[in-house]
Amino acid sequence: MKKFFALMLTLLMVLSLVACGGNKDDEVVKMRFVTGSESGTYYAFGGTIAQHATNNAEGIEVIGVVGAGSQANIQELEKKGAELAFCQSDVMAYAYEGTNLFKDTGKVDCFSTVAALYMEQVQIVTCDPSIKTVADLEGKRVSIGAAGSGVYFNALDVLSCYGLSESDIIPTYQGFGDSANALKDGQIDAAFVVSGAPTTAIVELATTKTAYLVSIEDANVDKLLKASPYYSKSIIKAGTYNGQTEDVTTVAVGAVVLARNDIPEDAIYALTADIFDNYTNLVSSHAKYGELSLEFATSVTSVPYHPGAAKYFAEKNITVPTAK
After folding, report:
1. Prediction pTM value
2. pLDDT category of residue 7 using cuts at 50, 70 and 90
3. Is the alpha carbon torsion for 242, 245, 248, 253 positive or negative?
4. Using an 8 Å Cβ cutoff, are 151 and 194 in contact?
5. Is residue 153 within 8 Å of residue 95, measured between CB atoms?
6. pLDDT tens digit string along 229-241?
7. Phi, psi torsion values for 99, nearest 5 degrees
8. How far apart are CA 35 and CA 32, in angstroms?
9. What is the mean pLDDT of the chain?
10. 308 FRET partner, CA 20 to 30 A, in 146, 194, 275, 301?
11. Average pLDDT of the residues in 188-211
12. Residue ranges of the alpha helices (H) in 79-149?
């Protein structure tokens, strides 16, 4: 009889543990992280962030998914197709204010900032050695990003500093991978790529053909910064790409992680902590970890921060604006 009761007690304990374990999944907040195309930095770095957070942060599971660019990523947040998104700092400001890309569709304010991670350089790529400056793009076949994309507006901004417009070039509207393939096949003369350097599409192009990055002269950089203060001057150092022998001067926007406002504070706190408590030790898993800093992470002023991110940064004695 004693053995029977002991067996029953053991069985009840096992059933109790199983029941507790069954609730564990209910406590995990699952977040889809929409990134970018497979040939861009968003996709590779976003996937690395998602995997590390899933494996190490308590209470969250992050799934990196392919995205179609900053505007499309914000639209995914709006229609609840994702909980997290990568976005250019200029495009998120357009959405929040209902301007430029979002002028016709109206403002989108269902999201808030998690952190700014790194700078995305405006990279002007060519395989034609006679194209030495942006002014040389006049009359040339130039990919300026998908129609209505963030890259498209960045390209128009840069061209305007040289007195050029869309009508002064022969424009094509392609993403990073398609632009690189078109350059490789001689179908276009140059392409605008806005992504953290080194960018996979350009790396692959530079291994098969001699590719060049076109610098923006300092006077034109200053003109652009004055007209559009969300840009920053940026240097792509020599050796970033195969055959690149000199530093290249350009401008950049920030790569920012956004979250829907309705995601629990604890979940965004856990994600933010996982990124910034570990980034110094994760450079080997992705080089972009080496560009992270708390100072840059908390530099966004155009869109308020999510309360979960604000809580983490407050523990580091940094106050960031949150939605009222």
Report:
1. 0.80
2. very low
3. positive
4. yes
5. no
6. 778 899 999 999 9
7. -120, 175
8. 9
9. 90
10. 194
11. 93
12. 89-97
